[in-house]
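Example 3.2
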Amino acid sequence: QFPSIQGNVLEDDYLHLKIPSFVRERIYKESFCNEISRIQADSLSGPSDCNNRYYQVFIDNGKIERLDFMKVHSSNESFYHYETFIDIKSLQRGKHFLKLKWHYLNENGDLAQYIIPFYKN
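Structure, written as tokens:
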């Protein structure tokens, strides 16, 4: 499973992004989220939205802020993924790309990332 959107050529004014939750990173993410919550509690800055810190989403190098992630379970209860919708009404017609980075380090010690090209019609 890989991160995905609804297709390569989009007629819609939104992107439907799905991000699988891999077993290998769940413990790491839980630790990351607990640390974010602890830091926010210490600074009295309010509750954390961990997914918006853990996942960084870009369209054509512009970072998308404050996404509303939903946790969705499959028929196999041990597998789930996150979904969000991104408004792309203002994108020009043509080629674009969505870049997803997350705070799980890859084999090179860099933030893991995945790029999805698409065309807005």
